Amino acid sequence: MRKYYWLLLSSFLYLYSCKNGSSKVVNRDTTINTNTSFNNLFFDSVQVEHFLNEHAEFKNYEQQFLDFYKQRNYEFA
After folding, report:
1. What is the residue range of 77's domain?
2. How far apart are CA 27 and CA 73, in angstroms?
3. What is the pTM of this model?
4. What is the pLDDT of residues 48-63, one digit of tens each?
5. Which of 38, 47, 56, 57 is deepest in the core (most CB within 10 A)?
6. Has residue 17 been placed in a domain?
7. Is residue 6 part of a domain?
8. Around Cβ 59, how many Cβ atoms within 10 Å?
């Protein structure tokens, strides 16, 4: 009976941890613009997506790229 208890408990914890690892929403910082930024170089979001489509070697990092530039309001880094 204890064996089933531990199996059930471990299954519950495993399933809970999978749901708990969801990604958070990245908000766009609209205070960054050409007047307040360090430089005046900005991307368009389509340019970032086009780059990622052209370079398949960065496919694993696509969401990180998108989140990074979205948070910076697509300012060149």
Report:
1. 23-77
2. 9
3. 0.62
4. 999 999 999 999 999 9
5. 47
6. no
7. no
8. 9
